[in-house]
Amino acid sequence: MKVVILAGGFGTRISEESHLKPKPMIEIGERPILWHIMKSYSYYGYNDFIICLGYKGYVIKEFFADYYLHTSDVTFDFCKENKMTIHNNASEPWRVTLVDTGLHTMTGGRIKRVKKYIGNERFMLTYGDGVSDVNIKELEKYHVKSGKYITMTAIQPGGRFGVLDINDESLQINQFVEKSKEDGGWINGGFMVVEPEVFDYITDDSTIFEREPLENLAKEGNLVAYKHYGFWHCMDTQRDKLLLERLWRDNPAWKIW
Known about the structure:
Number of helices: 9
CATH topology: Spore Coat Polysaccharide Biosynthesis Protein SpsA, Chain A
Helix content: 25-40%
Largest sheet: 8 strands, mixed
Oligomer: single chain
Low-confidence stretches: none
Structural class: alpha/beta
Shape: globular
């Protein structure tokens, strides 16, 4: 199953670093947060990635083009052959498709633009700025059993996010309200499983996935929550980055690989 990662936003709330690189390339422990997310999926056997690029997408392309240089010891021999030798090859079992989905395209439009790379099949979907220890295999099993178009990982961060109204018995999401004030309720944590029918809910590049598509799916009863009680944190601000750096040194709960 393919994993789609949204990595095209401007990252304006962490402009201290995003003026130089896209937010998914901001580092935690000398590795981009995008790498951490991919390692989590890879641990569960999901190794086919489609990354939706936008703002400074060339930085992400260059990272993967020179992946060996970033992760291995190398010797450059300029004396005879201008030769590069890679030592202790730290390769990953990944297939990575990097797609320029537009500079100003909204989240729904980015998803629609990679449809041709996904085909008519189920896929994973998440954001390029959040890490978690969610069990992705169990998430997929839960999704298949639900029979819904989207299963969304729901988490409780305790502030400053939008709210999911979830039926206590069926766990069906009755209403999706993004970016409103809340009091510690359940929010969209990304790490979704999505059926291809969802493409029909996206109109064009101006479609914000978290608005009409998810709101309409919720009204129809086709959006269900997978409640995750473990670790989750997004890197929205510089303060978040510093917290994740400290956790990486002391207790990286999302490091399951």
